[in-house]
Amino acid sequence: MTGETARIGRRAGGRTARVAVRQAGPETNPAPPGPTGGSYKPLSEAGLRAIYDTALRLLEELGMGEVPRRFQDLALTKGAHLSARGRLCYSGGLVEDVIAGAAKSFVYHGRDPKHDFEIGGERVHFGTGGAAVQTLDIETGRYRSSTLADLYDFTRLIDTLANVSWFTRCCVATDVPDNLDLDVNTAYALLAGTTKPVGTSFTLAEHVDPIIDMFDIALGGEGLYRKRPFCKAHISPVISPMRYGEDAVDVTYACIRRGVPINAIIAAQSGATAPAIPAGFLAQSLAETLAALVLVNMISPGYPMIFSNWPLVIDLRTGAFCGGGGEISVMNAASGQLSNWLGLPSGAASSMTDAKAVDAQMGAEKAFSALAAGLAGTNMIYESSGMMASLLGASFEAFVADDEMLSHIYRIIKGIEVSEDSLGFEAICSSVLGEGHFLGADHTLAAMERDYYYPKLADRDDPRSWADKGAADLWSRSRAKAQQVLATHYPDYLSGAADAAIRERYRILLPPQRLRRPS
């Protein structure tokens, strides 16, 4: 090889390496979770005020029904009153005092502190939710009943997804019929699969103590959970229209006693348990979520609670729940706007597609609903990953695809930085007077790292290159990624001693070998 040939070879090899690096994209995430939203305001200031005033009027003049006796007695001592119909009523002044004293922000802990984040303001985080009874089987592509093993697999999958900030159990283990076993094993699957913040539900108040005791065992000692409460409770203490649910109120008391942060979810349905017209719906559901806030704060003033006013829509032609659509998207965004206007930690839902497959319908419904909720500045956006079939199903492929979608959503919420450096006056002059382009310039390379997200799943090849590589679609690429994670990622988040102690005390149905990579 001549010297000139060697130089050419070195240049070619260097160029190939540089091209490979550019094609892979930077490892840094230009828009991580937690950007500030609030630019989308579906409600005007006058609309916010009118909905709020109507909600206060509903609580004062109509009031709440089916109030458990112990809470009614407490509320009456704190300024509530009974109407002539025997309904528990709150004056506008009482409700506003509760709002003033309610928690405005709090830290949502992970078992690993690197996953901690603050809930409040207009900071936006996407996570999971749901109670799917079916799983889209990753091997057959058909729906089947969800199992405890599925829940564990979903948990360890999201443990690897950077844009899913917390994991609330997304499916119900239908193979666990006993309610206590179900609650305990659901909590155990969350412990085994991730150290991110998690969320679960409690069927009965009596199940709270055993599960919090199990969390203490996992952390290494009595009372440690209370110091860093990494699991919140999903509770619906108000049942639409305008009544309390006794079992859920009991769970609320039990959770407050053990220091469990509360996600108080009010999920009315348009035209069924709330008005079909959006403004009336929002007025009623706001009143109901305020009734939950009153409940929690009368029991324990200033207690950490997420104000989760989730408008749900039904197809009035059939009565079926509609997870996707413009109406549910704008109503959840409006809900987040209302909660933030009150200064309360906000929760809403998105990405509850009606699609059954990872297809164009899924992509459209998930993207515009997630974008609406995020731009509205909702703090905690639930159901944002993995949910399919109007919340009846969960999908491994959808979790992976949704994680990439959320990268784009975060990038949009982040917006555009305008500064002396980002305006690039000197860079423009240098390129115009120099090489005549911006390729390879320091200003360009800095922007590549700072301003652009490069997807790993979405295809940007030309048609011929795409065909030469097998013409794979998003579903197949997402499936391959999910399969790779599930085959290799078996996290070891429970010490041997803690796991043995838990198994000695509780009926744990996941065998130990299921938590380890097959040999």
Radius of gyration: 25 Å
Q: How much helical structure, as a percent, in the residues?
A: 40-55%
Q: Tell me the strand percentage band.
A: 5-15%
Distance between the termini: 49 Å
The parts where pLDDT drops under 50 for at least 5 residues are 1-12
Mean pLDDT, to the nearest integer, reads 94
Q: Which strand order do you get reading across the main beta sheet?
A: 5-18-17-14-13-10-9-8
Helix run count: 19
Tally of strands? 20
Please give the largest β-sheet. Answer: 8 strands, parallel
Structural class: alpha/beta
Q: Tell me, briefly, the overall form.
A: globular
Structural commentary:
The chain is an alpha/beta fold and 519 residues long. It has helices spanning 3-24, 45-62, 69-77, 92-101, 148-158, 179-193, 208-219, 224-227, 246-258, 278-299, 326-341, 360-375, 396-414, 420-423, 425-433, 442-450, 463-468, 474-488, 496-505; strands spanning 81-82, 88-89, 105-108, 117-120, 125-126, 134-136, 143-145, 167-168, 198-200, 231-235, 238-239, 243-244, 262-266, 305-309, 313-315, 320-322, 346-349, 380-382, 387-388, 393-395. Strands 5-18-17-14-13-10-9-8 form an 8-stranded parallel β-sheet. The protein has a 4-stranded mixed β-sheet with strand order 7-6-20-19. It has a two-stranded antiparallel ribbon with strand order 1-2. A hairpin with a 6-residue loop joins strand 6 (134-136) and strand 7 (143-145). Helix 4 crosses helix 10 (278-299) and helix 13 (396-414) packs across helix 18.
